[in-house]
Amino acid sequence: VLQIEIKNTSLKRNLWFMFELPKLVNKLKPNIAHFSFPIPFLNFLFSVPVVSTIHDFYPYEKPENFGFPNYLFNQLFTYLAVINSDGIVCVSQETLNRLQYYFPKVYAQGKNRVVYNYVDFENTQPKLPIKLNLENRPFILSVAQHRKNKNLHLLIQAYAKLIEEKRDIAPSTQLILVGSTGPETGNLIELIHTKSLGDRVLLTSSIDDEQLCWLYQNCQLVVCPSSTEGFCLPLAEALYFSSRVVCSDIPIFREVGASDCFYFDLDDDPVHNLSQAIINALKQPRPQLPPDEFRFSKTTAMTQYLEFYSSLF
């Protein structure tokens, strides 16, 4: 592991990616350089093949996630990463489809591959998150950043509806939202107070893997209500722990969740649709998924990466 000192500003960081990173790679002389997210770079500065992983096309599809003018820079970085890469790894077929839409010429070159993100909790021991003060109370879980496309406001409204109508969930059921703060944090807090749910909805970001494991294993169900995603690792993690999962009916969730999830429609009345899906899911037993059938394993991903690397030479 090499420690690199870069001033923590966007300009300094991206200039380092553009001009200093190629020097470092050429000095180390690897067989291949693989960047795990889109960075600005120029292919001719590298002496080895370069691969980039593309997780999504949010800069093009959800500019509000970044704000102005940041989304323009993120569009530029994604563009430079795509056109300068010798190979592109997409984290889902849905993301690959978007690559074809936005960059048809790059897609037509055929130097791309879908490799799913993997879940790796093999050496992680579950630990009760004491600071949440759950006290054996049932809870619904969602893991997502506070961004508009995550639709956490729909989940809060659906949860409030179920509590108000006293429908099919225990009165003591809490809602736990795990995720880093973002552009929607203020709106979510305001909605929680408006619905008088301050003592029922818990927002937390400082959760380690051990505590997250415990939450997945002990929740009533996991909800993923996003309007768009590149992959959605929390969905794969929930499936790994055989949690009940309710998610919006969008192509990427059908790809990742297949028949193992309960889906709700984002059209018409999404709050009603989500609350009904939660009720339906809670009526079903917790699923049992044999470990050897899990699709998002580290071994599978590593094998696919090696095969793709070999195809570039």
Automatic annotation (TrEMBL):
<dbReference type="InterPro" id="IPR028098">
    <property type="entry name" value="Glyco_trans_4-like_N"/>
</dbReference>
<dbReference type="Pfam" id="PF00534">
    <property type="entry name" value="Glycos_transf_1"/>
</dbReference>
<feature type="domain" description="Glycosyltransferase subfamily 4-like N-terminal">
    <location>
        <begin position="9"/>
        <end position="122"/>
    </location>
</feature>
<dbReference type="GO" id="GO:0016757">
    <property type="term" value="F:glycosyltransferase activity"/>
</dbReference>
<dbReference type="InterPro" id="IPR001296">
    <property type="entry name" value="Glyco_trans_1"/>
</dbReference>
<keyword id="KW-0328">Glycosyltransferase</keyword>
<dbReference type="Pfam" id="PF13439">
    <property type="entry name" value="Glyco_transf_4"/>
</dbReference>
<dbReference type="GO" id="GO:0009103">
    <property type="term" value="P:lipopolysaccharide biosynthetic process"/>
</dbReference>
<feature type="domain" description="Glycosyl transferase family 1">
    <location>
        <begin position="131"/>
        <end position="283"/>
    </location>
</feature>
<keyword id="KW-0808">Transferase</keyword>
<protein>
    <submittedName>
        <fullName>Mannosyltransferase B</fullName>
    </submittedName>
</protein>
